[in-house]
Amino acid sequence: MSYLKNLPNKDGYFGDFGGAFLPPELVPHFEEINKAYRELGRSADFLNELKYIRKHYQGRPTPVYYAHNLSKEVGAHIYLKREDLNHSGAHKLNHCMAEALLAKHMGKTKLIAETGAGQHGVALATAAAYFGMECEIHMGEIDIAKEAPNVTRMKLLGATVVPVGFGGRSLKEAVDSAFQSYVPQADTALFAIGSVVGPHPFPLMVRDFQSVVGFEAREQYLEMTGELPDHVGACVGGGSNSMGLFAGFMDDEQVVKNGVEPLGRGTKLGEHSATMTYGKPGMIHGFKCLLLEDEEGNPAPVHSIASGLDYPGVGPEHSFLKTAGKVNYHAVTDGETLDAFYKLSRLEGIIPALESSHAVAWAMKHAKEQPGCTMLINLSGRGDKDIDYVVDNFGTGEPK
Questions:
Q1: Which of 71, 307, 380, 385 is the catalytic position?
Q2: pTM, full prediction
Q3: Are residues 227 and 295 in the same domain?
Q4: In terms of residue numbers, what domain contains 270?
């Protein structure tokens, strides 16, 4: 695939975005990670072990499903890539197992990470258990309360969950906390970043490890229909599940790529996490990207009903794709997301993650604009983690 081979460049840039801006003490450790990935990522032994894990442990390939009832309801053809059926309940295990495998080959004994909705934390704790490694997960106090089932799962899997109580007490602060913890442990631990964000080589590595989603989906859709979809779509926070889907279609110019981000409660700063819609070039957590900033030029407070999407930045590759006009980015509100959450549950018997519900909400809206079109949506995770929060705050969605 020409696009995937050409980007990023050797310094980790996608156009003007990316790079690695690190404190001096971390530079050799990230160089070590980059060197290990460049060598092991092309090794038959590494790739074969990863293929074995994906097939026999994760349960890949995950299916593509034609959502017949939802399609009939909205007047267009909606297909779902069922990453909610991936072991541990989301796409996150695709890169977590690979990052843990890389850490093992590097001689590391511990995995450290941040998490928002908890799916990355659960996936990394799962990988740590599989490989017999220690695991330390940093999570904002707001998200700990909101995503209690995933906190329990992480602890059952043997991970240490570190509550983060400063600042906004959500995903950005969890990343800050995890970085602080990683610095003195870098000799023996790997900071397994949970999305296509962070300093190089993580945006590259996580995209490559998640590309299995897109390549599987493309082959499956072709087998089902004999053609490619008009649109592919996925939610965007940091952007790992969407880059995984897009990777399989980057050289198919006729397929429109759509990223869907959270408009939250409104358009004012602090009411949303719509980085692609309102962000400007900036720097966060050691890389350049589009960024939501406050009046002082600091990362702005953000909001989303989905804990996994409330991040003021976004992956550098998404920033490049936006500015280059290669991907269309849309924003949907909390209300539209909830409607999609209830609709998919009732019409298809699939309870989606609130993150994934953003992508379903966009598909439902787009069906009205382009009746009869075909859309392949990445259902990045299942909603078990969200049901208590949704029911406690919004009810079960029963007709009034």
A1: 380
A2: 0.96
A3: yes
A4: 59-89+210-394
Percent of the chain with pLDDT over 90: 94
Last residue of a domain, one of 175, 202, 229: 202
Annotated catalytic residue within 114, 136, 173, 355: 114
CA-closest candidate to residue 104, choices 171, 36, 44, 158: 36
For residues 295 and 350, membership in a common domain is answered with: yes
380 an active-site residue?
yes
pLDDT, one tens digit per residue, over 344-384 is 999 999 999 999 999 999 999 999 999 999 999 999 999 99
Reading the block at residue 207, the tokens are: 């995209």
Cα–Cα separations (whole angstroms), residue 326 to 12, 38, 89, 123, 316: 19, 27, 30, 30, 14
In a domain, 334, yes or no: yes
Q: Specify whether 146 is located in the same domain as 182.
A: yes
Q: What is the CATH number of the domain that holds 154?
A: 3.40.50.1100
- Total structural domains in the chain? 2
Known catalytic residue at 92: yes
Supply the pLDDT for residue 397. 86
Report yes or no on 13 lying in a domain.
Answer: no
Instruction: Characterize the bridge pairing of strands 160-164 and 280-284.
Output: unpaired
Asked whether residue 20 is domain-assigned, the answer is no
The answer to whether residues 191 and 50 belong to one domain is yes
Q: What is the average pLDDT score of the chain?
A: 96
Annotated active-site residue in 71, 81, 88, 92: 92
Across 270-300, b (16+ Cβ under 10 Å) vs e yields ebbbbbbbbbeebebbbbbbbbbbeeeeebb
pLDDT tens, 182-193? 999 999 999 999
Confirm whether 257 is a catalytic residue. no
Task: Render pLDDT for 281-323 as a digit per residue (tens, 0 to 9).
Answer: 999 999 999 999 999 999 999 999 999 999 999 999 999 999 9
